[in-house]
fructose-2,6-bisphosphate 2-phosphatase (Cryomyces minteri), 441 residues
Amino acid sequence: MGEDGYFKPQMRKVPTGELMQPSRKTNGYGVQAEDTRICVVMVGLPARGKSLIAQKVVRYLGWLSIPAKTFNVGQYRRSNTPTPTAEFFDTSNAEGERLRRAAAEAAVDDMIRWFAAGSGTIAILDATNSTKDRRRWIQERCDAEGIETLFVESKCDDEDLIMSNILEVKTTSPDYKGQDPEKAAQDFRNRIKNYEKVYETIDEDESHMTYVKLINVGKQVIINRIQDYLQSRVVYYLMNLHIKPRSIWLSRHGESNFNLSGQIGGDADISDRGEAYARRLPELVKQSAGDRELTTARFLEYEKLEWKALDELDSGVCDGLTYAEIAEQYPEDFKQRDDDKYNYRYLGGESYRDVVIRLEPIIMELERSENILIVTHQAILRCIYAYFMNVPQERSPWMEVPLHTLIKLTPKAYSTIEERLKADIPAVSTFREKGSLAKHQ
Ligand code: ATP
Ligand code: F6P
């Protein structure tokens, strides 16, 4: 901080060809996050997508190296009441009230301990938090610890959607383990009725709080008193989410002449086999598309976009070399990259961490879009795949993403389904295991 009270930008020489660990100050994301601690407090009736939203936010932040964790009050409650019936959630049930309160307290205590341990930036308190009283209590606990609060209310009055949410995720919840799905759905509807008796939406009385209200899955969004950059990132992400059924298809470009010679980077032409794959790709997509996707898309001329942000990881001075040549000419670098491939930045080039940062707008675009096919390079596909499949950073740069293979990802409520279709067109493998010099073959 300068004398005038403003942050002075520090001119820091950024070394290249070194391991660039994220600094605590920026979380590797260029965000002044050193002292930022935010509790995202979910608000809303049951079956309004709160847990799904919480889980997505944690995955997104984790992908950006922002330490985030969900504290789900339901899980704490299950330790005292594993399979409650709707009556448990009736506020005139004193014992139920006591146990629910105890679960909320245990979750908040753990969250505060997690922040105190020093490595957390964003906690998500996943519960209905459906009364003003409860929200005031959370606000006070957070204020006392210097933790910012961001209330996220999901409101939805689309009865069909709520019913399908119940059938999709609630009847299989551990709360109804081993029970008849129809009875479970009926009981869950009664649970919602009990919540409705006391539910208070966030309103003018709470205008001093920082909040976002997502109404009918983002058809309308109300934002109040957003205070800092990280909060606005979270809100922006939430604004881009939708739950329409869709798939994301991922493919590498067809085999290139550089792939054949084992050279990395470059902008080489595609080989004859690569050309054959390019011709086969539309057929593969058709093959893997369900009837609904095909029917929906039948009148569309596919729009094609070129995104600079999808360029391959820049290998700097190593561009155009084979892995064996890199090992010979830059042995130290070669070893460093094997030791920490995610953070290693090529001399004059990029690391996987750098790529993730430049891909962030692409992820936002992918969240907004419906069916989409992305054709790009190996390292870029690994990063995009890691986001959707929640692959940890130490593993993502080592994943096999073969040439001439179409990957179809279909997001579901709490998971993403993956299918792989191999085109019957041979291609070299560009995969290199840790420690090997793998000439592509
Ligand atoms: P509970 O209070 O019982 O934990 P919840 O609000 O956490 O319920 P989820 O378990 O997240 O609800 O429900 C997931 C379902 O909600 C999914 O089927 C998902 O498609 C749907 N969903 C996701 N976002 C929204 C939203 N903004 N509004 C309504 N439904 C949504
Ligand atoms: O070999 C193909 C390629 O796309 C190169 O251009 C790129 O440098 C490399 O894959 C990325 O993979 P890795 O990070 O495993 O070296």
The pocket of 6-O-phosphono-beta-D-fructofuranose (ligand 2) is lined by residues 259, 264-265, 312-313, 315, 377-379, 397, 430, 432 (CB under 6 Å). Strands lie at 38-43, 68-72, 122-126, 148-155, 211-215, 220-224, 248-252, 372-376, 405-411, 416-422.
